[in-house]
Amino acid sequence: MTENVSDQAPAEQQEVEELTAMDRVRLARDPNRPATLDYVQELLQNVMELRGDRAFGDDQALIGGLGTFRGRSVVWLGHQGGSNTKENLLRNFGMPRPEGFRKARRLMQHAEKFGLPIITFVDTSGADPGISSEERGQANAIAECLMQMIGTRVPIVCTVIGEGGSGGALAISLGDRLLMLENAIYAVASPEACAAILWKDAGKAPEAAATMRITAADLQRFGIIDELIPEPVPAHEAPRDTIQTVGDRIEAHLDELTALLGSDERPDMQGLLDRRYDKFRVIGAWSEV
Amino acid sequence: MRNFFQRQGKFRPLFRGDERGKDGEKQIPEDLWIKCPKCSELLYSRECERNGRVCPKCGHHFRLSARERIDLLVDEDSFEEWDTGLRTQDPLEFVDGQGPYTEKVEKTRKKTGENESLITGRATINGRPFAIVVAEFSFLGASMGSVWGEKLARAVERATEQGIAVLTINASGGARMHEGLFSLMQMAKTIAAFHRLGERGLPHISLLVDPCYGGVPASYATVADVMLAEPGALIGFAGQRVIEQVTRQKLPEGFQTAEFLLEHGMLDQIVDRNALRDTMTRLSDHYIRRPDSIGTYYPKGLVPDLPTVEAPEEPGQTPVSAEAGEES
What is the mean pLDDT of residues B184-198? Predict the structure, then answer.
Protein backbone atom coordinates (compact mmCIF):
# COMPACT_ATOMS: atom_id res chain seq x y z
CA MET A 1 0.00 0.00 0.00
CA THR A 2 1.33 3.45 -0.83
CA GLU A 3 1.08 6.47 1.36
CA ASN A 4 -0.44 9.80 0.51
CA VAL A 5 2.34 12.26 -0.10
CA SER A 6 1.86 15.73 -1.48
CA ASP A 7 1.51 15.87 -5.30
CA GLN A 8 4.03 18.67 -5.46
CA ALA A 9 6.82 16.40 -4.28
CA PRO A 10 9.84 16.74 -6.56
CA ALA A 11 10.77 13.93 -8.90
CA GLU A 12 13.71 12.76 -6.77
CA GLN A 13 11.24 11.86 -4.07
CA GLN A 14 9.45 9.35 -6.26
CA GLU A 15 11.21 6.47 -4.58
CA VAL A 16 10.26 7.69 -1.13
CA GLU A 17 6.61 7.95 -2.10
CA GLU A 18 6.44 4.24 -2.76
CA LEU A 19 7.26 3.38 0.85
CA THR A 20 4.63 1.47 2.78
CA ALA A 21 3.74 2.31 6.36
CA MET A 22 5.74 -0.71 7.52
CA ASP A 23 8.76 0.48 5.50
CA ARG A 24 8.58 3.70 7.46
CA VAL A 25 8.29 1.77 10.71
CA ARG A 26 11.57 0.06 9.79
CA LEU A 27 13.19 3.36 8.83
CA ALA A 28 11.98 5.00 12.04
CA ARG A 29 13.56 2.18 14.05
CA ASP A 30 16.79 1.97 12.06
CA PRO A 31 19.61 1.72 14.62
CA ASN A 32 21.70 4.16 12.58
CA ARG A 33 19.00 6.81 12.46
CA PRO A 34 20.09 9.99 14.27
CA ALA A 35 18.86 9.94 17.86
CA THR A 36 18.43 12.59 20.54
CA LEU A 37 22.12 12.75 21.50
CA ASP A 38 23.09 13.24 17.84
CA TYR A 39 20.73 16.22 17.66
CA VAL A 40 21.98 17.58 20.96
CA GLN A 41 25.59 17.25 19.88
CA GLU A 42 25.00 18.79 16.48
CA LEU A 43 22.54 21.57 17.34
CA LEU A 44 23.44 22.66 20.87
CA GLN A 45 26.53 24.21 22.42
CA ASN A 46 27.52 24.46 26.04
CA VAL A 47 25.47 21.38 26.84
CA MET A 48 24.92 20.43 30.48
CA GLU A 49 23.03 17.21 31.11
CA LEU A 50 20.87 17.45 34.23
CA ARG A 51 20.21 14.10 35.82
CA GLY A 52 18.02 12.39 38.35
CA ASP A 53 14.44 12.63 39.56
CA ARG A 54 15.44 13.60 43.15
CA ALA A 55 13.34 10.71 44.45
CA PHE A 56 14.65 7.37 43.29
CA GLY A 57 17.12 7.39 40.45
CA ASP A 58 18.26 8.62 37.08
CA ASP A 59 16.73 7.23 33.93
CA GLN A 60 18.98 7.04 30.90
CA ALA A 61 16.19 6.38 28.40
CA LEU A 62 14.74 9.87 28.87
CA ILE A 63 17.45 12.45 29.21
CA GLY A 64 17.62 16.21 29.34
CA GLY A 65 19.48 19.28 30.36
CA LEU A 66 20.55 22.76 29.36
CA GLY A 67 22.13 23.92 26.13
CA THR A 68 22.55 26.87 23.79
CA PHE A 69 20.47 26.46 20.67
CA ARG A 70 21.31 29.03 17.98
CA GLY A 71 21.96 31.76 20.47
CA ARG A 72 19.24 30.90 23.00
CA SER A 73 19.56 28.95 26.21
CA VAL A 74 17.02 26.13 26.20
CA VAL A 75 16.05 23.09 28.18
CA TRP A 76 16.21 19.98 25.99
CA LEU A 77 14.57 16.63 26.60
CA GLY A 78 14.60 13.46 24.54
CA HIS A 79 14.36 9.71 24.46
CA GLN A 80 17.60 7.87 23.89
CA GLY A 81 18.01 4.22 23.05
CA GLY A 82 21.22 2.42 22.17
CA SER A 83 22.85 1.25 18.97
CA ASN A 84 24.42 -1.84 20.56
CA THR A 85 23.50 -4.30 23.31
CA LYS A 86 25.57 -2.64 26.02
CA GLU A 87 24.06 0.78 25.33
CA ASN A 88 20.60 -0.69 25.02
CA LEU A 89 20.89 -2.25 28.46
CA LEU A 90 22.06 1.05 29.93
CA ARG A 91 19.25 2.92 28.23
CA ASN A 92 16.60 0.21 28.56
CA PHE A 93 16.07 0.20 24.78
CA GLY A 94 14.88 3.80 24.99
CA MET A 95 11.89 2.89 27.17
CA PRO A 96 11.68 5.34 30.10
CA ARG A 97 10.93 4.20 33.62
CA PRO A 98 8.98 6.42 36.02
CA GLU A 99 12.21 8.21 37.04
CA GLY A 100 12.60 9.42 33.47
CA PHE A 101 9.17 11.04 33.39
CA ARG A 102 9.68 12.51 36.85
CA LYS A 103 13.01 13.95 35.74
CA ALA A 104 11.34 15.39 32.63
CA ARG A 105 8.73 16.99 34.83
CA ARG A 106 11.40 18.45 37.07
CA LEU A 107 13.28 19.89 34.07
CA MET A 108 10.07 21.45 32.73
CA GLN A 109 9.61 23.19 36.06
CA HIS A 110 13.25 24.22 35.86
CA ALA A 111 12.69 25.71 32.40
CA GLU A 112 9.62 27.56 33.61
CA LYS A 113 11.42 29.00 36.62
CA PHE A 114 14.14 30.51 34.44
CA GLY A 115 12.00 31.31 31.38
CA LEU A 116 13.87 28.94 29.08
CA PRO A 117 12.10 27.52 26.02
CA ILE A 118 11.89 23.72 25.84
CA ILE A 119 12.76 21.59 22.84
CA THR A 120 12.02 17.87 22.88
CA PHE A 121 13.06 14.96 20.68
CA VAL A 122 10.59 12.08 20.62
CA ASP A 123 12.00 8.64 19.87
CA THR A 124 10.78 5.69 21.93
CA SER A 125 8.92 2.45 21.42
CA GLY A 126 7.01 3.32 24.60
CA ALA A 127 7.20 3.57 28.37
CA ASP A 128 8.85 0.63 30.15
CA PRO A 129 6.30 -2.13 30.87
CA GLY A 130 8.21 -3.77 33.72
CA ILE A 131 7.28 -4.90 37.21
CA SER A 132 9.39 -2.32 39.04
CA SER A 133 8.07 0.51 36.84
CA GLU A 134 4.55 -0.45 37.83
CA GLU A 135 5.58 -0.55 41.49
CA ARG A 136 6.88 2.98 41.23
CA GLY A 137 3.78 4.30 39.48
CA GLN A 138 4.48 4.37 35.75
CA ALA A 139 0.97 5.61 34.93
CA ASN A 140 1.17 8.39 37.51
CA ALA A 141 4.66 9.41 36.38
CA ILE A 142 3.42 9.91 32.81
CA ALA A 143 0.26 11.65 34.00
CA GLU A 144 2.19 14.11 36.20
CA CYS A 145 4.51 14.85 33.31
CA LEU A 146 1.54 15.59 31.01
CA MET A 147 -0.12 17.79 33.63
CA GLN A 148 3.10 19.74 34.09
CA MET A 149 3.75 20.11 30.36
CA ILE A 150 0.29 21.39 29.42
CA GLY A 151 0.67 24.22 31.93
CA THR A 152 4.37 25.07 31.53
CA ARG A 153 4.70 28.80 30.92
CA VAL A 154 7.44 28.75 28.28
CA PRO A 155 7.31 28.00 24.55
CA ILE A 156 7.71 24.29 23.75
CA VAL A 157 8.60 22.76 20.39
CA CYS A 158 8.48 18.96 20.05
CA THR A 159 9.82 16.89 17.17
CA VAL A 160 9.16 13.23 16.49
CA ILE A 161 12.52 12.12 15.08
CA GLY A 162 12.04 8.34 15.06
CA GLU A 163 9.44 6.17 16.70
CA GLY A 164 6.69 7.91 18.63
CA GLY A 165 5.37 5.12 20.82
CA SER A 166 2.18 5.77 22.74
CA GLY A 167 2.11 7.31 26.24
CA GLY A 168 5.88 7.29 26.62
CA ALA A 169 6.13 9.51 23.56
CA LEU A 170 3.15 11.68 24.44
CA ALA A 171 4.71 12.50 27.82
CA ILE A 172 7.16 14.91 26.16
CA SER A 173 4.97 15.89 23.19
CA LEU A 174 2.43 18.31 24.66
CA GLY A 175 4.06 21.37 23.21
CA ASP A 176 2.97 24.43 21.31
CA ARG A 177 4.24 22.85 18.11
CA LEU A 178 4.54 19.21 17.10
CA LEU A 179 6.89 18.58 14.18
CA MET A 180 7.60 15.23 12.62
CA LEU A 181 10.19 13.88 10.24
CA GLU A 182 8.78 12.31 7.09
CA ASN A 183 9.97 8.80 7.98
CA ALA A 184 9.11 9.02 11.66
CA ILE A 185 6.00 7.31 12.99
CA TYR A 186 3.69 8.17 15.85
CA ALA A 187 1.23 5.55 17.07
CA VAL A 188 -1.07 4.74 19.95
CA ALA A 189 0.36 1.20 20.05
CA SER A 190 3.09 -0.55 18.10
CA PRO A 191 1.85 -2.17 14.87
CA GLU A 192 2.93 -5.53 16.34
CA ALA A 193 0.85 -5.03 19.50
CA CYS A 194 -2.13 -3.76 17.53
CA ALA A 195 -1.95 -6.77 15.19
CA ALA A 196 -1.74 -9.15 18.16
CA ILE A 197 -4.79 -7.63 19.80
CA LEU A 198 -7.10 -6.81 16.88
CA TRP A 199 -5.96 -9.35 14.30
CA LYS A 200 -4.95 -11.96 16.90
CA ASP A 201 -1.74 -12.37 14.89
CA ALA A 202 1.44 -10.31 15.45
CA GLY A 203 2.47 -11.30 11.92
CA LYS A 204 -0.18 -8.93 10.56
CA ALA A 205 1.89 -5.93 11.71
CA PRO A 206 2.30 -4.55 8.16
CA GLU A 207 -1.49 -4.50 7.74
CA ALA A 208 -1.93 -2.95 11.16
CA ALA A 209 0.73 -0.34 10.38
CA ALA A 210 -1.13 0.72 7.23
CA THR A 211 -4.54 0.71 8.92
CA MET A 212 -3.39 2.66 11.97
CA ARG A 213 -2.32 5.76 9.96
CA ILE A 214 0.92 6.33 11.78
CA THR A 215 2.97 8.17 9.18
CA ALA A 216 3.78 11.86 9.23
CA ALA A 217 1.74 12.38 6.04
CA ASP A 218 -1.35 10.81 7.64
CA LEU A 219 -0.98 12.79 10.84
CA GLN A 220 -0.51 16.02 8.90
CA ARG A 221 -3.71 15.28 7.00
CA PHE A 222 -5.51 14.76 10.34
CA GLY A 223 -4.16 18.05 11.66
CA ILE A 224 -2.47 16.30 14.59
CA ILE A 225 1.03 17.47 13.69
CA ASP A 226 1.89 21.05 12.78
CA GLU A 227 4.61 20.34 10.26
CA LEU A 228 6.06 17.46 8.30
CA ILE A 229 9.81 17.84 7.84
CA PRO A 230 10.76 16.21 4.52
CA GLU A 231 13.52 13.64 4.35
CA PRO A 232 14.78 13.75 0.76
CA VAL A 233 16.81 10.69 1.71
CA PRO A 234 16.24 8.65 4.89
CA ALA A 235 17.76 10.41 7.90
CA HIS A 236 20.47 7.80 8.51
CA GLU A 237 21.82 8.29 5.00
CA ALA A 238 22.24 12.04 5.52
CA PRO A 239 22.31 12.55 9.27
CA ARG A 240 23.94 16.00 9.33
CA ASP A 241 21.61 17.49 6.72
CA THR A 242 18.58 16.03 8.44
CA ILE A 243 19.64 17.35 11.84
CA GLN A 244 20.32 20.84 10.47
CA THR A 245 16.95 20.90 8.68
CA VAL A 246 15.22 19.88 11.90
CA GLY A 247 17.20 22.59 13.73
CA ASP A 248 16.08 25.20 11.18
CA ARG A 249 12.44 24.27 11.64
CA ILE A 250 12.66 24.24 15.45
CA GLU A 251 14.30 27.66 15.31
CA ALA A 252 11.60 29.05 13.01
CA HIS A 253 8.84 27.81 15.33
CA LEU A 254 10.60 29.12 18.43
CA ASP A 255 10.95 32.53 16.74
CA GLU A 256 7.26 32.51 15.89
CA LEU A 257 6.21 31.50 19.41
CA THR A 258 8.49 34.12 20.95
CA ALA A 259 7.02 36.80 18.70
CA LEU A 260 3.51 35.80 19.79
CA LEU A 261 4.50 36.39 23.42
CA GLY A 262 4.80 40.11 22.73
CA SER A 263 6.92 42.46 24.76
CA ASP A 264 10.02 41.30 26.63
CA GLU A 265 8.92 42.97 29.86
CA ARG A 266 5.50 41.41 30.09
CA PRO A 267 5.32 38.33 27.88
CA ASP A 268 1.78 37.05 27.38
CA MET A 269 2.22 33.61 28.92
CA GLN A 270 -1.52 33.15 29.48
CA GLY A 271 -2.06 33.63 25.74
CA LEU A 272 0.54 30.94 25.11
CA LEU A 273 -1.25 28.53 27.44
CA ASP A 274 -4.65 29.34 25.95
CA ARG A 275 -3.41 28.63 22.43
CA ARG A 276 -1.85 25.38 23.66
CA TYR A 277 -5.17 24.44 25.25
CA ASP A 278 -7.09 25.14 22.05
CA LYS A 279 -4.57 23.16 20.00
CA PHE A 280 -5.34 19.94 21.89
CA ARG A 281 -8.97 20.78 22.66
CA VAL A 282 -10.02 20.45 19.02
CA ILE A 283 -8.38 17.08 18.32
CA GLY A 284 -10.98 14.36 17.94
CA ALA A 285 -13.26 12.76 15.38
CA TRP A 286 -16.86 12.87 16.57
CA SER A 287 -20.25 14.04 15.40
CA GLU A 288 -23.28 15.15 17.34
CA VAL A 289 -26.83 13.98 16.68
CA MET B 1 -4.75 -6.16 27.92
CA ARG B 2 -6.88 -8.96 26.56
CA ASN B 3 -6.98 -10.94 29.76
CA PHE B 4 -9.27 -8.32 31.26
CA PHE B 5 -11.86 -8.89 28.64
CA GLN B 6 -11.68 -12.58 29.38
CA ARG B 7 -11.83 -12.03 33.10
CA GLN B 8 -15.20 -10.44 32.61
CA GLY B 9 -16.57 -13.86 31.77
CA LYS B 10 -16.41 -14.92 35.40
CA PHE B 11 -18.99 -12.37 36.39
CA ARG B 12 -21.49 -13.09 33.66
CA PRO B 13 -23.74 -15.44 35.64
CA LEU B 14 -24.73 -12.47 37.70
CA PHE B 15 -26.47 -10.91 34.74
CA ARG B 16 -28.07 -13.98 33.19
CA GLY B 17 -31.06 -16.01 34.18
CA ASP B 18 -32.27 -19.63 33.75
CA GLU B 19 -29.34 -21.21 31.96
CA ARG B 20 -29.05 -24.93 31.59
CA GLY B 21 -26.02 -27.13 31.95
CA LYS B 22 -24.27 -28.87 29.06
CA ASP B 23 -26.58 -31.87 29.05
CA GLY B 24 -29.74 -29.88 29.48
CA GLU B 25 -29.88 -30.63 33.18
CA LYS B 26 -31.45 -27.87 35.23
CA GLN B 27 -28.77 -25.90 37.04
CA ILE B 28 -29.10 -23.80 40.12
CA PRO B 29 -31.12 -20.82 38.88
CA GLU B 30 -28.39 -18.28 38.47
CA ASP B 31 -30.63 -15.34 39.04
CA LEU B 32 -31.16 -16.62 42.57
CA TRP B 33 -27.72 -17.80 43.59
CA ILE B 34 -24.27 -16.66 42.55
CA LYS B 35 -20.87 -17.88 43.50
CA CYS B 36 -18.36 -15.34 44.78
CA PRO B 37 -15.21 -15.70 42.64
CA LYS B 38 -13.04 -14.70 45.59
CA CYS B 39 -14.32 -16.71 48.57
CA SER B 40 -16.36 -19.27 46.58
CA GLU B 41 -19.37 -18.74 48.86
CA LEU B 42 -22.75 -19.36 47.32
CA LEU B 43 -24.58 -16.06 47.70
CA TYR B 44 -28.25 -15.27 47.54
CA SER B 45 -28.18 -12.82 44.66
CA ARG B 46 -30.85 -10.48 46.08
CA GLU B 47 -28.78 -10.10 49.21
CA CYS B 48 -25.68 -9.37 47.14
CA GLU B 49 -27.62 -6.82 45.05
CA ARG B 50 -28.86 -5.09 48.17
CA ASN B 51 -25.27 -4.85 49.30
CA GLY B 52 -24.27 -2.98 46.14
CA ARG B 53 -22.98 -6.20 44.57
CA VAL B 54 -20.40 -6.56 47.28
CA CYS B 55 -20.01 -10.09 48.65
CA PRO B 56 -21.47 -10.01 52.18
CA LYS B 57 -19.02 -12.74 53.24
CA CYS B 58 -15.63 -11.54 51.98
CA GLY B 59 -16.26 -8.01 50.67
CA HIS B 60 -15.42 -8.90 47.06
CA HIS B 61 -16.59 -6.10 44.78
CA PHE B 62 -18.34 -7.39 41.66
CA ARG B 63 -18.12 -5.19 38.59
CA LEU B 64 -20.99 -2.78 38.01
CA SER B 65 -22.24 -1.02 34.92
CA ALA B 66 -21.80 2.76 34.81
CA ARG B 67 -25.53 3.29 35.34
CA GLU B 68 -25.58 0.95 38.32
CA ARG B 69 -22.74 2.94 39.84
CA ILE B 70 -24.55 6.22 39.31
CA ASP B 71 -27.76 4.82 40.81
CA LEU B 72 -25.90 3.58 43.87
CA LEU B 73 -24.06 6.81 44.42
CA VAL B 74 -26.16 9.87 43.71
CA ASP B 75 -29.33 11.30 45.24
CA GLU B 76 -32.45 9.81 43.71
CA ASP B 77 -33.50 11.46 40.41
CA SER B 78 -30.68 14.00 40.67
CA PHE B 79 -28.65 12.77 37.69
CA GLU B 80 -28.87 15.02 34.66
CA GLU B 81 -26.97 13.39 31.81
CA TRP B 82 -24.83 15.48 29.45
CA ASP B 83 -23.89 15.14 25.77
CA THR B 84 -25.72 11.94 24.93
CA GLY B 85 -25.70 12.81 21.22
CA LEU B 86 -21.97 12.47 20.65
CA ARG B 87 -21.02 9.68 18.24
CA THR B 88 -17.64 8.46 17.19
CA GLN B 89 -16.43 8.90 13.64
CA ASP B 90 -14.13 6.58 11.79
CA PRO B 91 -11.32 8.88 10.65
CA LEU B 92 -8.97 5.98 9.88
CA GLU B 93 -11.62 3.96 8.01
CA PHE B 94 -10.43 1.19 10.24
CA VAL B 95 -10.98 -2.44 9.30
CA ASP B 96 -9.33 -5.21 11.29
CA GLY B 97 -9.53 -9.00 11.35
CA GLN B 98 -13.07 -8.73 12.76
CA GLY B 99 -14.44 -6.23 10.24
CA PRO B 100 -15.05 -2.48 10.07
CA TYR B 101 -14.84 -0.37 13.23
CA THR B 102 -18.16 1.35 12.48
CA GLU B 103 -19.96 -2.00 12.50
CA LYS B 104 -18.29 -2.96 15.74
CA VAL B 105 -19.49 0.26 17.37
CA GLU B 106 -23.04 -0.24 16.09
CA LYS B 107 -23.12 -3.81 17.42
CA THR B 108 -21.81 -2.67 20.77
CA ARG B 109 -24.40 0.11 20.97
CA LYS B 110 -27.18 -2.43 20.42
CA LYS B 111 -25.70 -4.94 22.85
CA THR B 112 -25.07 -2.49 25.69
CA GLY B 113 -27.81 0.08 25.15
CA GLU B 114 -25.14 2.76 25.60
CA ASN B 115 -23.86 5.17 22.96
CA GLU B 116 -20.27 5.24 24.20
CA SER B 117 -17.90 4.04 26.86
CA LEU B 118 -18.21 7.16 29.04
CA ILE B 119 -21.25 8.61 30.76
CA THR B 120 -21.14 12.19 32.04
CA GLY B 121 -23.55 14.45 33.85
CA ARG B 122 -24.37 16.44 36.92
CA ALA B 123 -25.86 15.03 40.11
CA THR B 124 -25.98 15.67 43.80
CA ILE B 125 -24.61 13.44 46.54
CA ASN B 126 -26.26 14.17 49.89
CA GLY B 127 -27.25 17.51 48.33
CA ARG B 128 -23.74 18.44 47.16
CA PRO B 129 -23.46 19.04 43.41
CA PHE B 130 -20.82 17.20 41.37
CA ALA B 131 -19.94 16.68 37.75
CA ILE B 132 -19.88 12.90 37.52
CA VAL B 133 -17.97 10.96 34.90
CA VAL B 134 -18.27 7.17 34.79
CA ALA B 135 -16.64 4.65 32.46
CA GLU B 136 -18.68 1.77 31.03
CA PHE B 137 -16.45 -1.28 30.73
CA SER B 138 -18.87 -3.35 28.67
CA PHE B 139 -18.58 -0.80 25.84
CA LEU B 140 -15.43 -1.89 23.99
CA GLY B 141 -13.56 -2.37 27.24
CA ALA B 142 -14.02 1.27 28.29
CA SER B 143 -11.46 2.28 25.70
CA MET B 144 -10.77 6.00 25.44
CA GLY B 145 -11.55 7.44 22.01
CA SER B 146 -12.64 10.78 20.57
CA VAL B 147 -16.12 10.74 22.11
CA TRP B 148 -14.71 9.95 25.54
CA GLY B 149 -12.29 12.86 25.21
CA GLU B 150 -14.93 15.30 24.00
CA LYS B 151 -17.51 14.30 26.61
CA LEU B 152 -14.97 14.49 29.39
CA ALA B 153 -13.52 17.82 28.25
CA ARG B 154 -17.02 19.30 28.05
CA ALA B 155 -17.96 17.92 31.46
CA VAL B 156 -14.81 19.32 33.08
CA GLU B 157 -15.25 22.68 31.32
CA ARG B 158 -18.83 22.84 32.56
CA ALA B 159 -17.72 21.99 36.08
CA THR B 160 -15.13 24.77 35.80
CA GLU B 161 -17.80 27.24 34.68
CA GLN B 162 -20.30 26.12 37.29
CA GLY B 163 -17.69 25.97 40.02
CA ILE B 164 -18.45 22.40 41.06
CA ALA B 165 -16.20 19.46 41.91
CA VAL B 166 -15.58 16.58 39.53
CA LEU B 167 -15.82 12.92 40.47
CA THR B 168 -14.43 10.50 37.92
CA ILE B 169 -15.07 6.77 38.25
CA ASN B 170 -12.44 5.24 36.06
CA ALA B 171 -12.14 1.87 34.41
CA SER B 172 -10.39 1.24 31.12
CA GLY B 173 -8.85 -1.52 29.08
CA GLY B 174 -6.68 0.97 27.21
CA ALA B 175 -6.81 3.16 24.15
CA ARG B 176 -9.44 2.84 21.39
CA MET B 177 -6.92 1.53 18.90
CA HIS B 178 -9.39 1.81 16.04
CA GLU B 179 -9.08 5.59 16.32
CA GLY B 180 -5.29 5.55 16.14
CA LEU B 181 -3.51 8.68 17.28
CA PHE B 182 -6.81 10.49 17.80
CA SER B 183 -7.24 8.11 20.70
CA LEU B 184 -3.82 8.89 22.23
CA MET B 185 -4.46 12.61 21.84
CA GLN B 186 -7.51 12.39 24.10
CA MET B 187 -5.04 12.04 26.96
CA ALA B 188 -3.73 15.49 26.06
CA LYS B 189 -7.16 16.99 25.64
CA THR B 190 -8.53 15.69 28.92
CA ILE B 191 -5.45 16.56 30.98
CA ALA B 192 -5.70 20.10 29.60
CA ALA B 193 -9.30 20.38 30.82
CA PHE B 194 -8.34 19.12 34.27
CA HIS B 195 -5.44 21.57 34.39
CA ARG B 196 -7.93 24.44 34.03
CA LEU B 197 -10.22 22.93 36.65
CA GLY B 198 -7.26 22.84 39.02
CA GLU B 199 -6.31 26.44 38.26
CA ARG B 200 -9.78 27.45 39.39
CA GLY B 201 -9.20 25.64 42.67
CA LEU B 202 -11.93 23.09 42.07
CA PRO B 203 -11.45 19.56 43.37
CA HIS B 204 -11.11 16.46 41.24
CA ILE B 205 -11.70 13.20 43.05
CA SER B 206 -10.82 10.04 41.16
CA LEU B 207 -12.10 6.56 41.99
CA LEU B 208 -10.33 3.73 40.21
CA VAL B 209 -12.37 0.59 39.72
CA ASP B 210 -11.59 -2.79 38.21
CA PRO B 211 -9.92 -2.83 35.71
CA CYS B 212 -8.11 0.44 35.02
CA TYR B 213 -5.20 0.34 32.57
CA GLY B 214 -3.38 2.35 29.92
CA GLY B 215 -4.03 5.92 28.91
CA VAL B 216 -6.73 6.68 31.46
CA PRO B 217 -4.53 6.13 34.54
CA ALA B 218 -1.59 7.56 32.54
CA SER B 219 -3.45 10.84 32.12
CA TYR B 220 -6.11 12.52 34.27
CA ALA B 221 -7.17 9.56 36.42
CA THR B 222 -4.04 9.43 38.58
CA VAL B 223 -3.38 13.16 39.02
CA ALA B 224 -6.59 13.92 40.90
CA ASP B 225 -6.53 15.84 44.17
CA VAL B 226 -7.70 12.73 45.95
CA MET B 227 -7.05 9.22 44.68
CA LEU B 228 -9.46 6.49 45.73
CA ALA B 229 -9.92 2.92 44.58
CA GLU B 230 -12.32 0.05 45.16
CA PRO B 231 -10.98 -2.97 47.06
CA GLY B 232 -9.31 -5.53 44.84
CA ALA B 233 -9.42 -3.39 41.68
CA LEU B 234 -6.60 -4.07 39.21
CA ILE B 235 -4.87 -0.86 38.23
CA GLY B 236 -1.76 -0.18 36.20
CA PHE B 237 -0.11 1.21 33.12
CA ALA B 238 0.82 -2.00 31.30
CA GLY B 239 -1.46 -5.04 31.37
CA GLN B 240 -0.32 -8.14 33.22
CA ARG B 241 -0.02 -10.29 30.12
CA VAL B 242 2.16 -7.69 28.41
CA ILE B 243 4.42 -7.45 31.45
CA GLU B 244 4.76 -11.23 31.66
CA GLN B 245 5.58 -11.46 27.97
CA VAL B 246 8.13 -8.67 28.01
CA THR B 247 9.87 -9.45 31.29
CA ARG B 248 9.39 -13.25 31.37
CA GLN B 249 9.06 -12.90 35.13
CA LYS B 250 6.41 -14.22 37.45
CA LEU B 251 4.27 -11.38 38.74
CA PRO B 252 4.33 -10.89 42.52
CA GLU B 253 1.34 -11.86 44.62
CA GLY B 254 -1.35 -9.19 44.58
CA PHE B 255 0.50 -7.25 41.84
CA GLN B 256 -1.39 -4.15 40.59
CA THR B 257 -4.28 -4.56 43.02
CA ALA B 258 -5.63 -1.49 44.80
CA GLU B 259 -4.03 -2.80 48.00
CA PHE B 260 -0.66 -3.05 46.21
CA LEU B 261 -1.02 0.53 44.96
CA LEU B 262 -1.95 1.81 48.40
CA GLU B 263 1.13 0.14 49.84
CA HIS B 264 3.29 1.75 47.13
CA GLY B 265 1.96 5.21 47.85
CA MET B 266 -0.22 5.62 44.76
CA LEU B 267 -3.58 5.99 46.50
CA ASP B 268 -5.03 8.04 49.34
CA GLN B 269 -7.58 5.45 50.37
CA ILE B 270 -9.33 2.27 49.39
CA VAL B 271 -13.04 2.84 49.78
CA ASP B 272 -15.74 0.24 50.14
CA ARG B 273 -18.41 0.81 47.51
CA ASN B 274 -21.12 1.23 50.10
CA ALA B 275 -19.13 3.92 51.89
CA LEU B 276 -18.53 6.04 48.80
CA ARG B 277 -21.49 8.38 49.32
CA ASP B 278 -20.30 9.25 52.80
CA THR B 279 -16.69 9.54 51.75
CA MET B 280 -17.52 11.88 48.86
CA THR B 281 -19.63 14.07 51.09
CA ARG B 282 -17.18 14.38 53.93
CA LEU B 283 -14.25 14.80 51.58
CA SER B 284 -15.68 17.51 49.37
CA ASP B 285 -17.07 19.46 52.32
CA HIS B 286 -13.49 20.07 53.44
CA TYR B 287 -12.79 22.09 50.31
CA ILE B 288 -15.78 24.39 50.54
CA ARG B 289 -15.04 28.03 51.33
CA ARG B 290 -16.22 28.99 54.81
CA PRO B 291 -16.66 32.46 56.27
CA ASP B 292 -13.38 31.99 58.12
CA SER B 293 -11.39 30.50 55.24
CA ILE B 294 -9.97 31.72 51.95
CA GLY B 295 -10.90 28.54 50.06
CA THR B 296 -11.48 28.62 46.32
CA TYR B 297 -14.44 26.30 46.11
CA TYR B 298 -18.03 27.21 46.72
CA PRO B 299 -20.32 25.16 44.53
CA LYS B 300 -23.17 27.07 42.97
CA GLY B 301 -26.48 25.50 43.79
CA LEU B 302 -25.28 24.13 47.09
CA VAL B 303 -28.13 24.32 49.54
CA PRO B 304 -26.92 26.12 52.67
CA ASP B 305 -27.01 24.28 55.97
CA LEU B 306 -26.83 20.81 54.51
CA PRO B 307 -26.72 18.19 57.22
CA THR B 308 -23.15 17.17 57.87
CA VAL B 309 -22.26 13.54 57.65
CA GLU B 310 -20.83 12.10 60.84
CA ALA B 311 -17.40 10.61 60.70
CA PRO B 312 -17.31 6.87 61.41
CA GLU B 313 -16.17 5.76 64.83
CA GLU B 314 -13.16 3.73 63.77
CA PRO B 315 -10.68 5.84 61.85
CA GLY B 316 -10.19 4.63 58.29
CA GLN B 317 -13.22 2.34 58.45
CA THR B 318 -16.39 3.75 57.03
CA PRO B 319 -19.51 1.84 58.02
CA VAL B 320 -21.66 0.34 55.32
CA SER B 321 -24.50 2.69 54.57
CA ALA B 322 -27.85 0.92 54.53
CA GLU B 323 -29.32 3.79 52.55
CA ALA B 324 -26.87 3.34 49.68
CA GLY B 325 -27.68 -0.34 49.43
CA GLU B 326 -31.39 0.21 49.10
CA GLU B 327 -31.00 2.53 46.14
CA SER B 328 -29.71 -0.21 43.82
Answer: 97
